[in-house]
Amino acid sequence: MFSEILDDGGDLTHWIYKKYPSLLKRIRGIVEESVTGVFRLYQLSKAGKLCVPAMNVNDSVTKQKFDNLYCCRESILDGLKRTTDVMFGGKQVLVCGYGEVGKGCCSALKALGAVVYVTEVDPICALQACMDGFRVLKLSEVIRQADMVITCTGNKNVVVREHLDRMKNGCIVCNMGHSNTEIDLVSLHTSELKWERVRPQVDHIIWPDGKRIVLLAEGRLLNLSCSTVPSFVLSITATTQALALIELFNAPEGRYKQDVYLLPKKMGKSSRNL
């Protein structure tokens, strides 16, 4: 009996590869919906370690635009309002990463009058941020003046203890990227720092000198922890994933090799019509 992996972030795929590699013989393929998970799959493919075909759903138009860009454009404001009741006008906001999620967040924050800065290591995305009217700076250059710091990179330890120590009193820190890895939470669990739960999903981290930062959702995804996701977006994403699973399962033997494939365009069109 054959099975397939439906993954978000590559965690299940990584776990099976590490703990139960024998199961891969019975797996027909992998369907992955996140930037981070797709990156991991391409790494496996490049190293020649990808044992089954994998479908990259994240880069399909339906998933990338509706979920990553348009949904995050709404949920970033919803999550921040629900947790902090903050006023956005005039606030200096640092958005780390200018992929689809970062673009959506920047667009929403700019529309409400926030002063938005962007950090980005990819030169093309950095150019896009610049052409869209945002100042592209290094994290260290703007961290002291930021009223909010939002991570949207899909990477690990983007904001580390050094940055957290330099933040101003009352700075709001949250993650819109991947899992709970973007903010270095381990460095915050020390005897010198005090954690104070203010309300559900909102913690004050207090430094010895009295400075405190506002951490949302304990570094987990803000949009999933503190806001609602439109049912339309959920249906689009779920349908796209289901069609990818069907495509891999019904594909004739030999159509898909042990590599990473983009979701066929006809599948993307089908998900929008359902």
From TrEMBL:
Belongs to the adenosylhomocysteinase family. It comes from the Eukaryota. GO terms for cellular component: cytosol. Its cofactor is NAD(+). InterPro entries: Adenosylhomocyst_ase-like_sf (IPR042172), Adenosylhomocysteinase-like (IPR000043), Ado_hCys_hydrolase_NAD-bd (IPR015878), NAD(P)-bd_dom_sf (IPR036291), S-Ado-L-homoCys_hydrolase_CS (IPR020082). Pfam families: AdoHcyase, AdoHcyase_NAD. The keyword NAD applies. Keywords: NAD, One-carbon metabolism. One of its GO terms (biological process) is one-carbon metabolic process. It comes from Gouania willdenowi (Blunt-snouted clingfish). This is S-adenosylhomocysteine hydrolase-like protein 1. Residues 68-229 form the S-adenosyl-L-homocysteine hydrolase NAD binding domain.
